[in-house]
Design goal:
By secondary structure, the chain is mostly helical. The chain has helices spanning about 40-65, 85-90, 90-125, 130-140, 145-155, 160-170, 180-205, 210-220, 225-235, 240-255, 255-265, 275-285, 290-320.
């Protein structure tokens, strides 16, 4: 190729020889990449699904199947159709248990919806020593329900601390554990006292998402504490209130430990404080336990509990509309 040209020469460009690029190195397979099989997610879900199937689904289906038999503790029983369901309609103890369970829901749920909210608003403030009060209010939640029940039995007994204080003040003894209605109210008080801290934590998480600017704007407009609570706090945590209502309704309808510990295995004087879950325990345990009839009662409790939850959710949807 020429590097210089005279005026008479034409401009020519010498074609450069074709240069063959070096071969690209062979690409190694990425060892970090794996082909995902369609069954891979199910392999991860399998342990949890097996546990649910073994301890929830199978017992539920077995209970439904036994509810149509006359099975007892030591005998398999035979198919009897809907005889167990027809019998419980005429069972006076079933209606007593249903009455007590519904009264328990009506007495406990409103308190567990409102009191933890007020308590959460109190302890969310940044005050000296507020951490101690948060821990103190939550302590009953982590305490064993058996321990809590026994403590309250000792307090409410005829020779307990509360009756001793009433006598010291000149009042007579109060039969907290001997009067059927007072016993049921005492069990409700224990349930509320033990559940306050649990639902307080749920409300604290919801209140943390309420903007402070809304409260400040209402305060500037002259709204007091009660009006700010009704117009700002309640609408902001309404979905949480529905959740608390649903959880507490199911727990109250299926109450067992508090009433059992305070009323005894017979359900109080004459069985007047027996709940539905206590009735299932009374009928289905022992060597001569009627497993078939107890299973029918369990299915009814499940249906009523499901209906109660759907009722709460439906009421919430109507308010949203």
């Amino acid at each position: 190729m020429k590097t210089g040209m005279t005026p008479g020469e034409r401009f020519t460009v010498a074609e450069a020889p074709a240069v063959t690029p070096p071969p690209a190195p062979a690409r190694r397979p990425d060892r970090g990449t794996r082909t995902q099989l369609p069954s891979s997610p199910w392999l991860f879900l399998a342990p949890g699904l097996l546990i649910v199937a073994a301890f929830s689904l199978y017992p539920f289906l077995s209970t439904v199947a036994h509810s149509f038999t006359d099975a007892r503790t030591l005998t398999a029983g035979q198919f009897v159709g809907g005889a167990n369901y027809r019998e419980l309609i005429h069972d006076a103890m079933f209606w007593t248990g249903l009455r007590n369970s519904l009264l328990y829901v009506l007495g406990v749920v409103p308190l567990l919806v409102m009191l933890p909210l007020l308590l959460a608003m109190l302890v969310q403030r940044r005050l000296p020593g507020i951490t101690f009060f948060r821990a103190a209010f939550y302590t009953p939640v982590v305490a064993s329900v058996v321990v809590v029940g026994l403590i309250w039995v000792w307090l409410l007994d005829d020779r307990g601390l509360i009756n001793a204080l009433l006598e010291g003040l000149g009042f007579g003894k109060v039969g907290f554990l001997s009067d059927p209605w007072l016993l049921l109210l005492s069990a409700m008080a224990v349930t509320v006292w033990k559940g306050l801290g649990y639902y307080m934590i749920i409300y604290l998480a919801a209140l943390a998402n309420v903007p402070r600017e809304l409260h400040e704007a209402c305060a500037v407009d002259g709204a007091g504490a009660v009006r700010r609570f009704l117009t700002v706090t309640v609408p902001a945590v309404r979905s949480t209130m529905v959740l608390v209502a649903a959880l507490s309704s199911v727990a109250a309808f299926k109450v067992f430990s508090e009433v059992y510990l305070m009323a005894g295995p017979t359900g109080g004087p004459g069985g007047e404080d027996t709940t539905l879950v206590m009735l299932v325990q009374q009928v289905g345990t022992g060597l001569s336990g009627r497993v078939g009839y107890a299973s029918a009662l369990s299915v009814v409790v499940f249906v009523l509990t499901l209906g109660l939850m759907l009722l709460v959710l439906r009421a919430n949807r109507k308010e949203d509309a």
